[in-house]
Amino acid sequence: ELFAPKIHTDRIAGLIRNYEFADDSALSYFRNRLKEAPKDVAFGLDWVLRHADTAEKQDAAANALIFKTDVLWAQLDALHAAYVEPGRIPPGAWQPDQGLAARTP
């Protein structure tokens, strides 16, 4: 989350450049995260510093973060399996040739 504003700024630019469906509605999540992510970081850090006052609670906080990153990696693994290798796109999922912005030479 600490680096989310920079990541989301880059994502917004890439989505606008490459996908015709990238309108205000489609980008609202990423634009909102530009403001919300820093607040989330501050809240999370403050909460841990105030409440994780034992080794057990600190371990629980660290394990929660590890779980979150494991879930995010699982999502990335699923996207890679669908769209890179082996390239098995699930039924009903986005197809790479749909919604691309027209490219100008």
TrEMBL record:
Residues 2-77 form the Thiaminase-2/PQQC domain. SUPFAM superfamilies: Heme oxygenase-like (SSF48613). Pfam families: TENA_THI-4 (PF03070). InterPro entries: Haem_Oase-like_multi-hlx (IPR016084), PqqC-like (IPR039068), Thiaminase-2/PQQC (IPR004305). Keywords: Oxidoreductase. GO terms for molecular function: oxidoreductase activity. PANTHER family: 4-AMINOBENZOATE SYNTHASE (PTHR40279:SF3), PQQC-LIKE PROTEIN (PTHR40279). This is Thiaminase-2/PQQC domain-containing protein. It comes from marine sediment metagenome.
